[in-house]
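so my prof wants the structure for this chain in the tokens format not the other one, which i didnt know existed until like an hour ago. anyway here's the sequence
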Amino acid sequence: MANSVVLFNAPSHLPTKLTYTNFTIWRTQLYSGLIGHNLLGFIDGSTPPPSQTIPESPFSTKRIPNPDYILWLHQDQLILNAMLGCCVDTIQPHISTVSTSQEAWERLLVLFANKSRSRVMSLKELLLNNPRGTRSIQEYLQHMGAIADDLARVDNPLSEDDLVLYILADLGPEFKEITAALRACDTPISFDELYDKLGEYEIHLKKDEPTPSFSIATKNYIHRQNNFTS
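here's what i got, hopefully its the right format
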């Protein structure tokens, strides 16, 4: 451990506050800050507290406060204070009663492990039940991509192949031909390539749509005119 306390505070070292939706990003921020100052051991347990007291002299039975422990305690409390300071008000109570930064970290891990599991389940359910409907290809793929990004943020990244399969499964009957062709490809297709191919196919479909016929409107007009003159 260092011979002096490293100043560590929320505004400077942890500017992004922890919320219920950004734990992965916040954890990266915390880790990088602590590693940069050689302080990660305080929260992961690899820098345990020294003995609180030491013998006054080699042969003395009298014990005095251990300067190393005092230094460790000061550093640990600065880290704990920073962790408290960079949590939103609704999360602070979960770690407000702990006495060390390691205890705070362990409580946060338990809290967000449970929330991450439920978040992953809801996101995967959305992937399985997210038909394109009347949305454009751009809107649909942007939404599916956003779901994949959310999964990555909760440490459950989706492979590009799986994302492509989820997308192809819910495009709708008008995309049946290109879906079959893409599934038959020998080489994997990236999300960006899929975006381009489906966008082009959507344009092709719109061009092939029959234009509204004016014959019925014309017949109705003539019929009205005949009734008027008769």
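also thought this was worth mentioning. The chain has two domains: 10-113, 130-208.
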